[in-house]
Specification:
Helix content of chain A: over 70%
Number of domains of chain A: 1
Largest interface: A-B, 23 and 35 residues
Shape of chain A: globular
Number of helices of chain A: 14
CATH superfamily of the largest domain in chain B: P-loop containing nucleotide triphosphate hydrolases
Number of strands of chain A: 0
Radius of gyration of chain A: 21 Å
Oligomer: heterodimer
Order of helices and strands of chain B: EEEHEEHEHHHEHEHEEHEHEEHEH
Structural class of chain B: alpha/beta
Distance between the termini of chain B: 32 Å
Structural class of chain A: mainly alpha
Helix content of chain B: 25-40%
CATH architecture of the largest domain in chain B: 3-Layer(aba) Sandwich
Low-confidence stretches of chain B: none
Order of helices and strands of chain A: HHHHHHHHHHHHHH
Chain lengths: ~325, ~300
């Protein structure tokens, strides 16, 4: 497996795809950080606890999305990176006539898929870590406030969750690369699913909204109970999407203040911690506890996708054409 | 009699109701070049895949050098190479990088790999393009690269699926020569081809597969005699002047079945190869022997004969 892993890794690093993705992710991150720098002062108050984390969480007036710019771009780009690393993992090998040659070598069949997946994961991790490290480094120079140990811890968890999230999309794309014979089809299928889950379920939650309104209709005269019931249904539906899970998890870990009303954090905080939360962020262990279900959800989805890919790949017969 | 390299027992493969290989019994010995013939979809590739353990047989057993292909595929794949039809390489890697990858997958040491790579590239005449990207290679060159790719692990057995399809005549000769050279190094070769003429040129034995069944198997000579000559050898003799006395004395040679005369030639059917005895009779009779040849059967005729019967 190590041989496959090393070769795939070398392939990734030498590929134009990697260079393009890296530049894309880097530019987006820099742009978001620039926006943050412009606005960070207005958000800082004497009671702000995580000044350093503000680098990643500062928003702009009129920013239309739930997540602040940096997190929004990250949550937009990680799936693209994951998909780009996985969508042609197996079907390109098949189309180029390499697969049967490869499988005729004295290696276990799962070394091929494991090696490829691990190489993708390594590339993904390198990208996420380097982007966050670059932003953190720039920020350190500009704002001049070093991160506290808790902030470092929170950043590490953020990196971990981001890698797991990317792994989910990579596993999904890999699965499509096994199910569909053509790389173009698996790419379209992955992107299509991503657009659906990211845009329609999380960013512009039209589908959860519609379902919630159909299940629990509300208007201006509705009682508080009805409104929160509606929000609850909304939350449950939108949490089908791993994008929502990821957004909620990183928002809690990086302690993003005041998300939109329907958001998970507001709900959780209102119900559990009443009003105290906005002034003092949750302690680290409490934040972890809060995002645990979300993180487990993403992990479970990633594992399911990979397991299905694995089984499909192992059971697939190499057939005469 | 060499060591048995390939043995199958009632090997059968069905794909959802369709029988690709049907009760195949095959035995191939060390050093043979075995030509696998048959129309498309006759089960040739499926048989190869089962022998390598890439596909599981529905029933029956496949063995390579004593290892069960289904249960011990890794052991089999260590001593077997496979050149698939329409073989592909990593186009954006160089010739050498591709070969190094194969060598690594076969756990060759680096020094050994480099040595074999440069030797083999020289053998197939690809030394000049060793550091070129594979995408720059012609079809024929890629196929020769394929030969290096299967040779590099120095296998006991090599499967080649349509190694000469889509290549120019000169390229085909190169490939065939290389296959013969591989065989001389002790590598048993099994290959599929539709180019009967080429198969006949290099094969020690052929097997004809139709609808998953082995309909004929043996050396080209033997198959020809069985299917076309009614099991007999046919010898054509040309003499200076033919007379009936000569035909009669040839008829008396033990084993001769029939003698037909036409002009100064005789067509003799016999049960064994009696060229020596017949020549002696002619020379003893005082006649002049001008030419003698034993009828050779073209594989194409044999092949067509078998498929007319089915």
């Amino acid at each position: 497996m190590y041989v496959v892993f090393r070769k795939e890794l070398a392939d990734h690093f030498a590929s134009r795809r990697f260079a393009i993705l890296f530049i894309l992710v880097l530019l987006a991150a820099m742009f978001a950080t620039y926006i943050a720098f412009q606005n960070i002062r207005s958000e800082l108050t004497p009671t702000t606890e995580f000044v350093f984390l503000k680098l990643f969480t500062t928003s702009v007036k009129g920013w239309p999305f739930l997540l602040p710019p940096f997190l929004f771009f990250i949550s937009l780009l990680i799936p693209i990176v994951g998909i780009a690393l996985g969508f042609d993992a197996i079907n390109s090998e098949r189309a180029s006539g390499n697969l049967s040659r490869l499988l005729a070598q004295p290696i276990y069949r799962d070394s091929v898929i494991n090696g490829k997946f691990l190489a993708g994961l390594a590339v993904l991790s390198i990208m996420v870590v380097s982007v966050i490290a670059i932003v953190a480094g720039l920020g350190l120079r500009i704002i001049g406030v070093p991160p506290s140990s808790e902030e470092v811890l929170r950043l590490l968890v953020f990196v971990l969750i981001s890698v797991i999230y990317g792994a989910f999309w990579m596993a999904l794309a890999t699965l499509f690369s096994i199910l569909f014979k053509s790389a173009a089809t698996s790419m379209l299928a992955s992107i299509g699913l991503w657009v659906f889950l990211f845009f329609f379920m999380s960013v512009f939650p039209v589908i959860p909204g519609a379902i919630a309104n159909a299940a629990v209709p509300i208007d201006q005269n509705s009682s508080m109970a009805m409104i929160s019931k509606n929000a609850e249904v909304h939350g449950i539906i939108s949490r089908i999407s791993p994008s929502t899970l990821y957004g909620e998890a990183v928002a809690a870990i990086l302690s993003v203040p005041a998300l939109g009303s329907a958001s998970f954090l507001a709900l959780m905080v209102i119900s559990t911690y009443a009003s105290g939360r906005m002034l003092t962020p949750l302690p680290f262990d409490q934040s972890l506890l809060l995002v645990w279900p979300q993180v487990m959800g993403i992990i479970a989805l990633a594992v399911i996708c990979f397991a299905v890919s694995y089984i499909r790949f192992m059971r697939e017969e190499i057939r005469a054409i | 009699m060499g060591q048995v390299v390939v043995e199958t027992k009632d090997l059968t493969k069905t794909y959802d109701g369709f029988t690709a290989v049907d009760g195949l019994n095959l035995r191939i010995e060390e050093g043979e070049i075995f030509g696998f013939l048959g129309p498309n979809g006759a089960g040739k590739t499926t048989t190869m895949l089962m022998l390598m353990g890439l596909t599981e047989p529905s029933s029956g057993e496949a063995q390579v050098c004593g290892y069960n292909s289904t249960r011990e595929p890794l052991k089999v794949k260590r001593i077997v190479s496979y050149l698939p039809e329409r073989v592909g390489f990593y186009e954006d890697m160089t010739v050498k990088q591709n070969l190094r990858y194969t060598a690594e997958l076969n756990s060759l040491s680096q020094g050994e790999a480099e040595k074999r790579i440069s030797n083999l590239l020289a053998t197939v005449g690809l030394s000049k393009v060793a550091d070129e990207e594979v995408s720059k290679l012609s079809r024929g060159m890629k196929q020769r690269l394929g030969i290096v790719d299967i040779w590099i692990k120095e296998p006991k057995l090599a499967f080649l699926d349509e190694p000469t399809s889509g290549i120019d005549p000169e390229g085909i000769d190169d490939i065939l020569n290389l296959m013969v050279r591989m065989a001389k190094k002790g590598i048993t070769i099994i290959f599929c081809s539709h180019q009967l003429h080429q198969v006949q040129k290099i094969c020690t034995r052929v097997g004809i597969l139709a609808k998953g069944r082995l309909v004929a198997e043996g050396s080209v000579d033997r198959l020809g005699r069985q299917s076309i000559g009614g099991g007999r050898y046919r010898i054509e003799v040309e003499v200076a002047k033919l007379d009936s006395k000569l035909s009669d004395s040839i008829k008396r040679v033990k084993g001769v079945v029939e003698v037909q005369a036409s002009g100064n030639s005789l067509l003799i059917s016999c049960e064994k190869d009696l060229r020596g005895q017949i020549a002696k009779v002619i020379v003893d009779s005082g006649n002049l022997l001008i030419g003698m040849k034993i009828e050779e059967y073209s594989l194409e005729r044999i092949y067509k004969k078998y498929f007319r019967e089915i």
